Amino acid sequence: MKVLGTVKEVRDQVKRWRARGLSVGLVPTMGFLHEGHGSLISKAVEQNDRVVVSVFVNPTQFGPGEDLEAYPRDMDRDSAYCESLGANVIFHPEPSEMYDPDFTTYVNMEVLSETLCGVTRPIHFRGVCTVCTKLFNIVKPDRAYFGQKDAQQLAIIRRMVRDLNMDLEIVGCPIVREEDGLAKSSRNEYLSPEERQAALILSQSIFLGEKMIAEGEKSAEAVKKAMTEKINTEPLAEIDYVEVVDGVSMQPIDEIKAPALVAIAVKIGRTRLIDNTIVSD
Ligand code: AMP
């Protein structure tokens, strides 16, 4: 497995693969990889002849005062993990390789990016759409893999690919959780032992919402209220949002019907965590 740092190196490598008729999968990540990322990489290895994992903490998707500098990094461990899963290349560029000093072009999505995480992180999805467009243009993959953990991101990427006629398939992969239910996240690293325990309130409230819906509850208001009350029993938790939205448009709905998305963002101490569940038929 190779670690490549420049756009040219990746393009040259992909061209050599293409000349041999090989298919290419891309897994975009910010590194500090865990089994959530691992599930995407394994799926990509299964479905493509060659797999590129990008490891790039993308500055344009972090707002002022967010955790860009503090974001955990461990390239040695990430490389060993990607190699063990059968990936062929890690693309690990410096920010200056991706963004020229006079960079001025962004991909901005309306509507879908204005709810949920877009409310407290107004420039986040502009950064995500921009960097994913760049990665798609650099790697030109047949397929790119995204986790349901970031459900709004997945919906936005699907819409962007459709709206802009990007020539690749987006593959969504289910949320991977710790044994006790907490959704795996690189940001779990920030949690103290006490906060790690408190963070269980996220998955517990998601499971409560799932149970109510499975038992026939159709009112988004009732589900949101019960989940909010549950989260508020945890003194270290501070709610950013508890929402029920349409799973495609990301707009709030009153009556729960598939494909709905029940999504939450909660701060545990200084760490903002997200979780969700999809309502299917
Ligand atoms: P990140 O490095 O956090 O930007 O995540 C890179 C990709 O991995 C995104 O598509 C995430 O949705 C996905 N991912 C992160 N955590 C999980 C998880 N626990 N389960 C499934 N996918 C995940």
**Tally of helical segments:** 10
Strand content: 15-25%
- Any ligands, ions or cofactors bound here, and which? adenosine monophosphate
- Please state the overall shape, judged from the principal axes of the Cα atoms: globular
Characterize the main sheet.
Answer: 6 strands, parallel
What's the CATH architecture of the largest domain?
3-Layer(aba) Sandwich
Q: Look at the structure and give the CATH class of the largest domain.
A: Alpha Beta
Total beta strands? 9
The overall pLDDT, averaged over residues, is 98
Distance between the termini: 42 Å
- CATH level-four homologous superfamily name of the largest domain: HUPs
Estimate the helix proportion, in percent.
25-40%
Class by helix and strand content?
Answer: alpha/beta
**Total number of domains:** 2
